[in-house]
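Support request, please re-run this one:
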Amino acid sequence: MRTDSGAESTNASTSTNESEKPKIIEPIRLPTPEEIRGQDIWNNCAVRSVVSGVMGGGLGLFMGLFLGALENPIMQEEMTGRQQFIYQAKQMGRRSWSSCKAFALMGLVFSAAECVVEKARAKHDITNTVIAGCATGGAISARGGLKTACAGCAGFATFSVLIEKFLERHD
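Re-run finished. Output below.
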């Protein structure tokens, strides 16, 4: 019995000693010149916008492929297997190219607007997201007229704020 209680007291004293030890603070490491150069490149609004546009285009391409594959031909019963395959391939190609352009434009405009507003205001907050969302929604829907551009502005700004709140990027 003594060995059990002695082991328990040893374990208890070990755990208290570990909590009493001062935590080691690591020294601050200065960034290397390569890291500084990379950060300077990424802080350029043109670079950030182009990268966002390319990534948005890639996302749109994959979404178009997926959604194009889900479409069924109207006269499916009358088509042969080869005709259905060709129809599906064409639909996927059309849908992917259309989605690719739309998402690339959306990513480019949103990223450019947010970056420019952030640099002009010298703040990183939710207001930048609202302005960038409004500019993006208005630019994308401007072909439909003034009412459509205003609705696009409000809708995309709201969507952008909801995504920011969901991701909790800003305090």
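The mean pLDDT is 85. The CA atoms of residues 27 and 35 lie 18 Å apart.
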